[in-house]
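Section 4.2 – Deliverable D4.2 (structural model, holo form)

The reporting period included a commitment to supply a predicted holo structure for the target in complex with magnesium ion. Inputs used:
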Amino acid sequence: MKEKPITNIEDVPERELLSGGSPLCSGCGAGLGLRMGLKVMGKNTILVNSAGCLTLLAHYPYMPVHVPWIHVAIENAGAVACGINAAYRQLKKKAKVFCYIGDGATYDIGLQSLSAAVEKGEDMVYVCYNNEAFMNTGGQASTATPYGTYTTTTTKGKLRNRKQITKIMVAHGIKYAATACVSYPFDYMRKLQKAKEIKGPAFIDLLTPCVPGWGYNESQTINVGKLSVDTGFWPLYEVVNGKFSLTYKPKKLEPVKKLFKLQGRFHHLKAKELNMIQAKLNREWNLMKQGKYWETIEY
Ligand SMILES: Cc1ncc(C[n+]2csc(CCOP(=O)(O)OP(=O)(O)O)c2C)c(N)n1
Ligand code: SF4
Ligand SMILES: [Mg+2]
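Output (structure tokens):
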């Protein structure tokens, strides 16, 4: 049965499947994304989470997640999703697998497992909570880390562009792939509703600001995420059966230096690098507005 589309606060399910008082950092975007995610996914969900910051949520005997939760190794969330589905088929039971997995685990260490599950057409909603680094082990760069970023392994700023994971998913022939951001909650939850309705795999790359990794004040999580979208640094879009569309178009892009000013991880950047990044964002945004999704890869 199709649910009423979530477009405003009235439509958001009241159910809380994540308890408050978590040990995550105050202002953690990933925790917020999980809370909203579980609201949409509902009770008949099996949560899969690989090693990362959210590992910290469970401290025996404290269990804040009110659906079955399987915590797995960083490299195998996709394979675990396949295993759960196979077991449920045998048991003649039905539940939706909800993988909520970090960027390091998705873009890097677990990519083969995710790729295999998507290729098999496995029924799952896979959300990559993307804080743009391996945060649980001290903030090392992942391939989701953007160009120019300071991390503990790129102390002069990363010199490579981030991997375009959503395009990799689309190239698998996935029916639904999208980007989202916790600062645009209705856009995110609406996308999750669509993902949940798909029979087969659906993928969402969810930008989740991270207080210590990005170096901003904990009160600014929503602002940082909003500005990421409003500067074109994190465009919101979806690709449905291969068809690309922007789901939110700021009238005019905000300058990227406004976004970078808020985050310590960009404070080392000089005017020349800022101009270069701004020019790249402008190019990408112009292409996206024309629907030229595949042309935004830079060589
Ligand atoms: C094969 C393997 N390599 C490295 C680790 C160590 N490790 C544990 S959590 C983590 C960081 C995961 O990063 P990400 O998936 O982005 O999640 P985040 O910590 O940012 O929430 C790493 C590298 C591991 N558990 N397994
Ligand atoms: S390090 Fe970042 S992702 Fe991890 S708990 Fe803190 S704010 Fe959340
Ligand atoms: Mg991460």
